[in-house]
């Protein structure tokens, strides 16, 4: 089956879909005939995304939610209860030394990066199990494996994504629901550009590929993981880091 048509008729919730990697994922899935439920915080950007997808011949709707709020996260799940694909992409990074990271910052990052996918999967996976099919892809980060002088809270929150991937693959796999994750290395997005400013050029020197990734490259991997071509892939953590891990001392 051609992957360009294999996903037609599916419905996918993509969190953090209004920018960066999430936006690329939303467009990629819509081009393959997937009805996209796009999540974000900014309604204006969400409505613009829906129009962009419609202009390409796709179908999408937007739901605004604040993933730092547990109740709002569960409301999002209730409004997308019929999806058979979940791409938990939304992420929050507040890079700072540990001594400069207060409890509120730590809690925000864990809430978005670890708790939100936990709540969404807890709410949406039972429906997938009942229907006997489903695919869940969590977007992690190479920061879970590659330490840096700053960003310990972010790295810890993304390490939780790896643990959840393995547990959920075991919990839901026998019922026909696969769970995998993609851990990108440095990727050029609006967020990384704003965060790194003039230092963004340093992204090109952190991996064996010699460059930072593009959002579309992560989106292509997600398309593979949610489609039938990866039907025997479950519980995998796929590092899309240009070889960043390979450059670390063994």
TrEMBL record:
Keyword Nucleotide-binding among UniProt keywords: no
Indicate whether Phosphoprotein appears among the record's keywords.
Answer: no
InterPro entries hit by this protein = NAD(P)-bd_dom_sf, SDR_fam
Task: Tell me where on the tree of life, at the top rank, the source sits.
Answer: Bacteria
Give the matching CDD domains: SDR_c
Q: Which family does it belong to?
A: Belongs to the short-chain dehydrogenases/reductases (SDR) family.
Signal peptide annotation: none
| SUPFAM superfamilies with a match to the protein in the record | NAD(P)-binding Rossmann-fold domains
Please give the PANTHER family that the UniProt record associates with this protein. Answer: OXIDOREDUCTASE, SHORT-CHAIN DEHYDROGENASE/REDUCTASE FAMILY (AFU_ORTHOLOGUE AFUA_5G02870), SHORT-CHAIN DEHYDROGENASE_REDUCTASE FAMILY PROTEIN
Keyword annotations for this protein, in alphabetical order, are: Oxidoreductase
Pfam families named in the record = adh_short_C2
| Protein's recorded name | SDR family oxidoreductase
């Amino acid at each position: 089956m051609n992957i360009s048509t294999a996903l037609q008729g599916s419905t996918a919730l993509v969190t953090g879909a209004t920018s960066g990697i999430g936006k690329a994922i939303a467009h990629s899935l819509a081009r393959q005939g997937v009805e996209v439920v796009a999540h974000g915080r900014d309604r204006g950007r969400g409505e613009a995304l829906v129009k962009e997808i419609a202009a390409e011949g796709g179908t999408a709707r937007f739901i605004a939610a604040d993933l730092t709020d547990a109740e709002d996260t569960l409301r999002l799940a209730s409004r997308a209860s019929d999806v058979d694909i979940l791409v938990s992409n939304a992420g929050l990074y507040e890079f700072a030394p540990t001594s400069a990271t207060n409890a509120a910052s730590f809690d925000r990052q864990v809430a978005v990066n670890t708790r939100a996918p936990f709540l969404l999967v807890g709410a949406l996976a039972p429906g997938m199990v009942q229907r006997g099919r489903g695919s869940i892809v969590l977007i992690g980060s190479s920061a879970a494996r590659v330490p840096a002088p700053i960003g310990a809270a972010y790295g810890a929150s993304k390490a939780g994504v790896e643990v959840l991937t393995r547990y959920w693959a075991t919990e839901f796999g026998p019922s026909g629901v696969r769970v995998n994750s993609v851990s990108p290395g440095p990727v050029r997005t609006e967020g990384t550009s704003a965060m790194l400013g003039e230092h963004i050029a340093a992204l090109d020197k952190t991996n064996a590929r010699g460059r930072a990734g593009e959002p579309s490259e992560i989106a292509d991997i997600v398309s593979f993981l949610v489609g039938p071509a990866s039907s025997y892939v479950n519980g995998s953590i796929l590092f899309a880091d240009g070889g960043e891990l390979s450059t670390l001392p063994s």
